[in-house]
Amino acid sequence: MQTIPVETLPHTTVPSIRVGDSVIGEEAIAGEMQFHPSTDREAAAKAAARALVIQELLRQRAEILGIETGSLHEPDERAIAVMLDQELQVPPPDEEACVRFHAAHPERFCEPTRLKVRHILLAAAPDDLDARDEQFKKAEGLIDTLKQHPKRFDEMAQRFSQCPSKDEGGSLGWVSRGQTVSELDRALEPLPEGLHERPLPSRYGWHVVVIDARLERQPLPYAEVKDRVAHELTEQATRVALRHYLLALESEIGVEGFTLADDDVDGPLMR
Question: In what residue span(s) does the PpiC domain sit (predicted)?
Answer without folding.
Answer: 112-213
